[in-house]
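tokens incoming
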């Protein structure tokens, strides 16, 4: 079985340079991963993965932050994360599930003042443990609606794959402001 995987951001722009992985249903955590660019001659965020016909598991992708190609994470993102943490609407209006995910840069399951501080540190090039990176969610994923419960699954289970290509939407953690555009 060959899976056609498309990685795009919230606005539909292709995401290149990610790593896709397949984790089996085995509890030992056996997984395979390869740099997508090495797996296929595809272009513009479109890749192929070959799996056995009876494969069981989950397909996921990740991508480290790349200052050369990724959107800028700035002080405005930190301010928007702080507003969300304080239960104040961001300057662009109500926070979407994608904004909540992006604001939870430390991935502790909630948007807090610490997230805003980590985003500010990153924006000012001050050392922080919560380094922004991309996470990828399925189009039908159950996404968070509450800043105090930012819980979601990344990737997609093979059992719930749709017919045709697999689309995963990338969200850059820390990039709160640009998602609203």
């Amino acid at each position: 079985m060959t899976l056609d995987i498309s990685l795009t951001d919230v606005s539909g722009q292709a995401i290149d340079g990610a790593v896709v992985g397949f984790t089996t249903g085995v509890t030992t955590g056996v997984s395979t991963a390869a740099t997508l660019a090495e797996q296929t001659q595809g272009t513009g965020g479109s890749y192929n993965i070959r799996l056995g016909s009876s494969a069981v598991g989950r397909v996921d992708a990740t991508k480290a932050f790349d200052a050369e190609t990724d959107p800028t994470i700035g002080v405005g993102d930190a301010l928007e994360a702080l507003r969300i943490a304080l239960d104040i609407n961001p300057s662009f209006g109500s926070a979407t599930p994608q904004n909540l995910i992006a604001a939870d840069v430390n991935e502790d399951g909630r948007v807090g003042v610490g997230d805003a501080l980590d985003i500010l540190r990153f924006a000012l090039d001050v050392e922080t443990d919560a380094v922004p990176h991309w996470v990828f969610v399925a189009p039908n994923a159950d996404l968070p609606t509450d800043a105090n419960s930012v819980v979601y699954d990344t990737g997609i289970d093979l059992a719930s794959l749709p017919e045709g290509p697999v689309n995963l939407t990338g969200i850059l953690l820390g990039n709160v402001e640009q998602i609203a555009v």
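note: The radius of gyration is 17 Å.
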